[in-house]
Write a structure and sequence with these properties.
The complex is a heterodimer of chains A (643) and B (177). Chain A is 40% helix and 24% strand. Chain A is an alpha+beta fold and 643 residues long. Chain A folds into three domains: 3-233 and 305-388, Nucleotidyltransferase, domain 5 (2-Layer Sandwich), CATH 3.30.420; 395-505, Substrate Binding Domain Of DNAk, Chain A, domain 1 (Sandwich), CATH 2.60.34; 518-604, Substrate Binding Domain Of Dnak, Chain:A, Domain 2 (Up-down Bundle). In chain A, the strands form seven sheets. In chain A, strands 1, 2, 3, 4, 10 and 11 form a six-stranded mixed beta sheet that branches. A five-stranded mixed beta sheet of chain A has the order 17-12-13-14-18, with helices on both faces. The longest helix of chain A has 50 residues, at 578-627. With 177 residues, chain B is mainly α. Chain B has two domains: 3-62, Orthogonal Bundle (Helix Hairpins), CATH 1.10.287; 83-176, Monooxygenase. The longest helix of chain B has 32 residues, at 111-142. Chain B is globular. The chains are: A alpha+beta (643), B mainly alpha (177).
């Protein structure tokens, strides 16, 4: 970065991309049209996703936290992503690890709580916020002024896990432009560099999660055909497999496994795994000065079951995408665990081709997120690159007999909405319980429960008379909202699914205030800043619309719009009143409403028409081929056909 | 909503899905929320509503069952399991037997047997989809109630196959873990 930029006090906010990983996290931005990862003062790009809560209230993040892990095994939280959006009673919470968990106090949600630094208890959301804060600081050191962030999540993250990630970002004071699925981000990083069309698979084996995504790349549009994954499978499991092996060889039974010992052996296991990437054997130095040698072949045997699990997920995804492995144009590897030679061999065997490894598998996701952030912040080429994502798991509601009725099937493109109609089962039923579920299984008990609410106040009617409409809507972040309405009476109720493990708005606001130590003033200033950013965006978009689609304007419309633009511009420059800014934005919105509708119709007509012309041209091309024999008639036929 | 009109394709069962997918992609490109990130709130809402409609249309048309249901609805035939005539008892009995065979294969953790049962059902599902295409064409020319009933019956069969194959997927997951 040049000196000029460093001292530019008016430097515009720069959007950033964040890969909030299980083992490591990193932040990137787009510099001169190329995504680059931001290094810290030691020139390190990867920030270990570790947080240590020290006695006295200090918090250490990253390598410092890892260095403190041996001394403070219980107070150092690693792989916190595995706990995101999980309940205290979740089996995942009780897996091998050195932590102590705090019980929820009465009235608190059933979230996992780590007991750290004596009597402090922290949730996974708060731990993740510490990591995000550190990344934000690192970005600010480089860029001065950080704008919004795109944060990546595994495609297989469910609603609770996505919501928790957003909560963590809010706590860290980051504006979330978008949650982006990790494999899609990886494809974005690759696609931009290679400008390829075709069918791709992204095999992402990270520290704690596995994802596979089948993508169509077509003329700048990345469309997800299908996704699959396992949110509890990753490189950590390889470490665990080695650690279990080492502990068994040492003859430590469960009773003798202290937190310190488990931590030491896990660290040693990780080192052994890394060493076996290049070596054939490694000697693990384990506690009480014992040395155990581990051959690569043995390691590969230990992790074979893990690889098989990824294989069955991949086969399912291919099936969902309705394509054979042979039709793929490339396989992209993501995640540090894909450095393991056995993983690369397995992937090559599974898909019948050598995977692409040109971009560092640890950085590729953050780089893609930076690209997306740049596009969303409006500085980039949003006309050229778009992501069409899908919901990874089916969404449905409970119907009679403990059976799930799927309302939105998995792999539906987002944003999406669907309505299903139900009726009452009993005479004079005045309430209707809506139980929202996520998953592929037939029975309620085998799926994940996202929310429950009751629609009350239905007048007494015979069974089957009430008509209950349930509408599911999933936004571009993959977050779900549910609305239930009784048709005959019009009684309505809606919830945005804040699953039981997420934080409610009031809690986030309170935690935010505590963290800021400033209160009202800060929030107000923040709202003004947000409105200003929005005003600038809208003014730019309106100017562009007037320039490109001016022919759609009716008499006097341009003048009305321009007046509203001037008013908003003035407000954005002069006013510190969030209310005034907001109403100026609304006024411009009103003035452009009809114009926007006409532009929308034109865009739709173009999209469909473009397709027809394409199809006709293809036929014409074909006809031209046949016609080559009668060369004389070629040109006439072509013109005639295309009309 | 008429998903055929939304995606600008003719109202019929047999579709060139690759071409429909391409149209869907082009419409999504035109309507994607990212392209309206800087737009006014009402424009954003309109674009979102349209994008949702386009995605719904594609979700319906790409799925053999939902596509058949949509066509029937447009023909004024009530659809949905509780509004359709009950399935043929012989067919039900046979499906019950297939389900029992599947449960047995699951209990003995016999993955090859599970897969072979699935293969059989997949073949039948494909055959019924083909028959549906023909039946819909006939229906349009004959406009006969009998032809429609045949379509509805086939649709019911397809639903049974779908559920069977979903159960197979779940069992495969379970046996793999």
């Amino acid at each position: 970065m040049s000196l000029f930029e460093i001292f530019d006090p008016k430097a515009p906010p720069r959007p950033i991309g964040i890969d909030l990983g299980t083992t490591n996290s990193l932040v990137a931005y787009v510099s001169n049209e190329r995504p680059v990862a931001i290094a810290d003062c030691d020139l390190e790009v990867l920030v270990p996703s570790a947080v240590t809560y020290l006695p006295g209230g200090d918090v250490a993040v990253g390598r410092r936290a890892l260095a403190l892990a041996a001394e403070y095994p219980r107070d150092t939280i690693v792989s916190v992503k595995r706990y995101m959006g999980r309940g205290a009673d979740d089996p995942e919470t009780r897996r091998l690890g050195p932590y102590e968990f705090a019980a929820a106090e009465p009235g608190q949600a059933n979230t996992v709580r780590f007991r750290v630094a004596g009597d402090r208890s922290v949730t996974p959301v708060e731990v993740s916020a510490e990591i995000l804060r550190a990344l934000k600081r690192q970005a600010e050191d480089e860029l001065r002024h950080v704008g919004g962030a795109v944060i990546t999540v595994p495609a297989y993250f469910d609603d609770a896990q996505r919501q928790s990630t957003k909560d963590a970002a809010r706590l860290a004071g980051l504006e979330v432009l978008r949650l982006l699925n990790e494999p899609t981000a990886a494809a974005l990083a690759y696609g931009l560099e290679k400008k390829k069309d075709g069918l791709f698979a992204v095999y992402d084996l990270g520290g704690g999660t596995f994802d596979v995504t089948i993508l169509v790349l077509d003329n700048g549009v990345f469309q997800v055909r299908s996704t699959g994954g396992d949110s509890a499978l990753g490189g950590d499991d390889m470490d665990r497999a080695i650690a279990h092996h080492l502990l068994a060889k040492l003859g430590f039974d469960d009773a003798r496994q202290t937190p310190q010992l488990v931590r030491l052996v896990l660290d040693e296991a990780r080192k052994a795994k890394h060493a076996l990437t290049t070596q054939d054997t490694v000697v693990a130095e384990v506690p009480e000065h014992q040395r155990i040698s581990l051959a690569r072949a043995h390691f590969e045997e230990l992790i074979r079951p893990l690889l098989e699990r990824t294989g069955s997920v991949c086969r399912r995804a291919l099936k969902d995408a309705r394509i054979a492995a042979a039709r793929l144009d490339g396989v992209i590897l993501v995640g540090g665990a894909t450095r393991v030679p056995a993983v690369r061999r397995y992937v090559a065997e599974l898909f019948g081709r050598e995977p692409l490894v040109d971009i560092d598998p640890d950085q590729v996701v953050a780089l893609g997120a930076a690209v997306q952030a740049e596009l969303l912040a409006g500085e980039g080429r949003s006309d050229e690159v778009l992501l069409l994502d899908v919901i990874p798991l089916s969404l449905g509601i409970e119907v009679g007999g403990g059976v799930v009725d799927k309302v939105l099937p998995r792999n539906s493109s987002i944003p999406c909405a669907a309505t299903a109609t139900y009726t009452t089962q009993e005479d004079n039923q005045t309430g209707f319980e809506v139980h929202v579920l996520q998953g592929e299984r037939e029975l309620v008990a085998d799926n994940r429960s996202l929310a429950r609410f009751t629609l009350k106040g239905i007048p007494p009617m015979p069974a089957g008379m009430a008509r209950l409409e349930v509408t599911f809507a999933v936004d571009a972040d993959g977050l779900l909202g549910v609305r239930a309405r009784e048709v005959t009476t019009g009684i309505e109720q809606s919830v945005s699914v804040k699953p039981s493990y997420g934080l409610d708005d009031a809690t986030v606001e309170r935690m935010l205030l505590e963290a800021l130590d400033h209160g009202e003033e800060d929030l107000r200033a923040r709202r003004v800043a947000e409105h200003r950013v929005e005003a600038r965006r809208i003014l730019a978009a309106t100017a562009k619309a007037l320039a490109t689609d001016g022919d759609l304007l009716e008499a006097g419309e341009r003048e009305r719009i321009e007046l509203a633009c001037q008013a908003l511009d003035r407000a954005a420059q002069q006013s510190d009143d969030p209310g005034r800014l907001h109403s100026a934005i609304e006024a411009l919105d009103d003035a452009t409403k009809a114009f926007a509708g006409r532009r929308m119709n034109r865009a739709i007509a173009h999209a469909i028409e473009g397709q027809r012309v394409d199809a006709v041209e293809k036929k014409v091309e074909h006809a031209k081929g046949i016609d080559e024999a009668h060369a004389l008639h070629g040109p006439q036929l072509r013109t005639g056909g295309a009309r | 909503m008429d998903p055929f009109a939304t995606l600008g394709v003719p109202r019929r069962y047999e579709l060139d899905l690759l071409a429909v997918e391409k149209t869907h992609r082009e419409l999504s490109r035109a309507l994607h929320p990212d392209r309206f990130a800087g737009a006014s709130p009402s424009e954003r809402r309109d674009a979102l509503a349209k994008a949702v409609e386009v995605n719904e249309a594609w979700r319906i048309l790409r799925d053999p069952i939902r596509r058949a249901e949509a066509l029937l609805r447009l023909l004024g035939v009530p659809v949905g399991e509780d509004r359709e005539p009950k399935a043929d008892p012989d067919f039900l009995m046979e499906m019950l037997e297939q389900r029992e065979a599947l449960a047995e294969a699951k209990a003995s953790r016999d993955l090859p047997a599970v897969r072979s049962l699935a293969k059989g059902i997949e073949g039948r599902a494909r055959a019924v989809e083909g028959e549906l295409g023909t039946a819909f064409d006939l229906d349009e020319s004959a406009q006969g109630a009998a032809a429609r009933e045949a379509v509805v019956r086939k649709l019911g069969e397809l639903r049974f196959y779908r559920r069977f194959l979903e159960e197979v997927s779940a069992i495969e997951d379970e046996l793999a873990a």
